[in-house]
Amino acid sequence: MKIARQIGLTISLFMVLTMNLNSQNTEYLTPQELITTAYTLMSFDGGNPPDWEKIKNLFHPQANIILRTSPTEMTLVDRDGFVALWLKDMEEQNLKETGIKEEKIIDSYEIMGDIATCYVIYAVTIPTLNYPPQLGIDCFHLIKQNGRWYIISIVNEALRPGVDPPQNMKDEFAKYFNNISNDTRNRNPDQHLNILVNNQKKPSITKDFYLQSRAERDSLERPNIIMNLLEIKPGMFIGEAGAGEGYFTFHLSERIGLNGIIYANDISEENLNILTKYSKDFQKELNILDNIITVKGTEIDPCFPKKELDLIVIYHGFHEFEKKNEWLKNAYKYLKKGGKIAFVDSYHSNSGLTRDIINQCAIDASFSFLLYQKPSWNVLVYIKD
């Protein structure tokens, strides 16, 4: 009787699924066609958002999607929830204006009758900005009904050091990098992954390309408005954490003048070297002053050489900090009483960063909330009482 009930439930479920699918178009005759279409539909130019109904039609009505939302948490959503998360990210990251490209780098399929499993390594880039790609891996489960294939589930993970591609995809993963970067041709796949994720190897760029990319960023990110919010004034002593290649550093340099100092911090020696190079290469065009001191920090301490700073600012970098609580508690000692710390960042599912996370970390480090605004990125400011 137990077996009969199970068979009956299975037949009933199949009938329900079939009825739910009868109204949908018959497309995607192979798993490969379905997955390729998915990545094509999720890529769009600025001002031309995706067709969400076509995207929803990729999924089975009862599909489940599990997305990485922080280093320790994942979120389970249905296909409507998937679209809602994307719309939220588009709003918070200005993706409607910038567009986004999801490139399917490598895929691998196992097809067994009317079910299939697919792994895809992908790279996400914002075409209008000179950012390194964000790597991830999607695991799809697919089902074939009424002559076409559907996505029945997705599990998503961010590729980063310590999270390696599947063994059967590593060789092809290495070839991908060999095709785009001669100076990494002899490295193994693990090294390739570390290079891209940590952005340790940067291609040389022309002056015109750099200045054009910077101008595009300025139009989207509105750094002058952000500096106004942070009350950046001549003569200030500022510690910038996670300065990277110096995009925001150079804006600060012009604003604070020769009587101020910026301590540009990063844990990457490569980034600091590039920052120093760019400060010389583009000094005239960007009015970069001789007021920048580079500082190599650690994962838990910015190591600023001066205490009594007026401001510590983290511009679009806090989402990458591995040890946020320890770092903030150490950063506290570098500020003068009444000094401020500012977090300028985006909140989105892939980074796992939210306003609540920043707020809790800041309060745990003894900072007091001061203001929140969103001129482009989210701007959160706290004060050392």
Helix content: 25-40%
Give the domain tally: 2
CATH H level of the largest domain: which superfamily? Answer: Vaccinia Virus protein VP39
- State the shape: elongated
How many H/I helical runs?
Answer: 14
Beta percentage is: 25-35%
Largest sheet: 7 strands, mixed
* Low confidence ranges: 1-24, 180-203
The string of secondary-structure elements, in order, is HHEHEEHHEEEEHHHHEHEHHEEHEHEE
Q: What is the CATH T-level topology of the largest domain?
A: Rossmann fold
Can you name the CATH architecture of the largest domain?
3-Layer(aba) Sandwich
Strand order of the largest sheet: 1-4-5-6-7-2-3
Q: Rounded to an integer, what's the Rg over CA atoms?
A: 24 Å
Describe the protein in words.
With 385 residues, the protein is α/β, with parallel strands linked by helices. The chain has helices at 2-21, 31-42, 52-56, 79-92, 95-98, 170-180, 189-198, 207-221, 223-229, 247-256, 269-281, 283-286, 324-331, 355-364, and strands at residues 44-45, 59-68, 74-77, 99-112, 115-125, 134-145, 148-158, 237-241, 261-266, 292-296, 309-315, 335-345, 368-373, 378-383. The strands form two sheets. Strands 1-4-5-6-7-2-3 form a seven-stranded mixed sheet. The protein has 14 helices and 14 strands. The protein has two domains: 2-159, Roll (Nuclear Transport Factor 2, Chain: A), CATH 3.10.450; 207-383, Vaccinia Virus protein VP39 (Rossmann fold), CATH 3.40.50.150.
